[in-house]
């Protein structure tokens, strides 16, 4: 990599096999905080080249990392942003757990503070994913049991502290179809999750304005051929849904089925404080969780988020049969599109210079967030 002067801007240069919105090219990308130019010739087999350049990963469901949890305050959130940046995540949604009002207010106040200025070495925080508290107590998964009735005034107050981009709710609960419409009017994307709803209730939620589904297959009514449940509503009708590709939460065959059924299925880590850390005990909101045997669990064995990072998610998707360009879109472009963001999640002129550089084995070599090079970690 070399540095060139161009007017008042210092342009960085990288050569390699670059994934653009129009396909793979072998050539040169120039950038400062945003991409200045991409030039080269079309190629078909990126793995034949020694350096692969992809859009930086965008993770819309991050509870923690580096031993820290989103609910623990500003310093913890900065640690999370730094940890995931080292694994190729260039933008993410800080994700809360179901909690009482004071805890949620404190968490969103901290996110709002950290969002005011991206700290060097950190991924960009794109907003908040409020996972609960308006979920079904029958499908808590690893969520603390602080569920409550829909409260649009509470949401408006939290939204004033930090921008809520996505909210997970159980649409089958009384009053929630109208609640979905109110949330959408605030510009908040709603998605079904932690739900015991029927297929019919899922379809009604989509008609009311629900856009996606939270960690598809997990903590929702399952698919059965005479009772398709929330999973069936997603597979039959959704354009977007998130899924956790750690190969523990969802069987590879189920991931491949969802890829065929949901046009813009995108991947999240649902990572906890255990991401990037050794086996041991960590916090998930008010819960203590244990990282062991490749997963993160409550004391009763319930899966409690993950320790997945997005670079490993990419390798997992390719391992189960997705081609690299398709896997990349599900980690970068589709989540950006879901949020309505056009200048991240793709390598194109004037987009933010959020990119990852990988070896042919898909191990990280370099990460750039808005043109800043980040120290990488290879698990």
The counted number of beta strands is 21
Overall outline: globular
Structural class: alpha/beta
- Poorly predicted residue ranges: 1-8
Q: Into which percentage range does the β-strand content fall? A: 25-35%
Radius of gyration: 20 Å
* Major β-sheet profile: 8 strands, mixed
Give the N-to-C terminal Cα separation: 24 Å
Please give the count of helices. 10
CATH class of the largest domain: Alpha Beta
In CATH terms, what is the architecture of the largest domain?
Answer: Alpha-Beta Barrel
The percent of residues in helical segments reads 25-40%
CATH topology of the largest domain: TIM Barrel
Return the domain count.
2
Average of the residue pLDDT scores: 95
Q: Determine the CATH superfamily of the largest domain.
A: Metal-dependent hydrolases
Domain Amidohydrolase-related: 52-373
Protein name: N-acetylglucosamine-6-phosphate deacetylase
Keywords: Carbohydrate metabolism, Hydrolase, Metal-binding
Enzyme class: hydrolase
What is the fold's blueprint, element by element?
Elements: E1 3-6, E2 9-20, E3 23-31, E4 35-42, E5 52-55, E6 57-62, E7 64-65, E8 68-69, H1 74-85, E9 89-95, H2 101-115, E10 124-131, H3 152-161, E11 164-169, H4 176-185, E12 189-192, H5 199-208, E13 212-213, H6 229-237, E14 240-243, H7 252-261, E15 264-267, E16 280-284, E17 287-292, E18 295-297, H8 310-319, H9 324-331, H10 333-339, E19 355-358, E20 364-369, E21 372-374
Parallel strand pairs: 2-5, 6-9, 9-10, 10-11, 11-12, 12-13, 14-15
Antiparallel strand pairs: 1-2, 2-3, 3-4, 5-19, 7-8, 16-17, 17-18, 19-20, 20-21
Helix pairs in contact: 2-3, 5-6, 8-9
Organism: Noviherbaspirillum album
GO molecular function: N-acetylglucosamine-6-phosphate deacetylase activity
Pfam families: Amidohydro_1
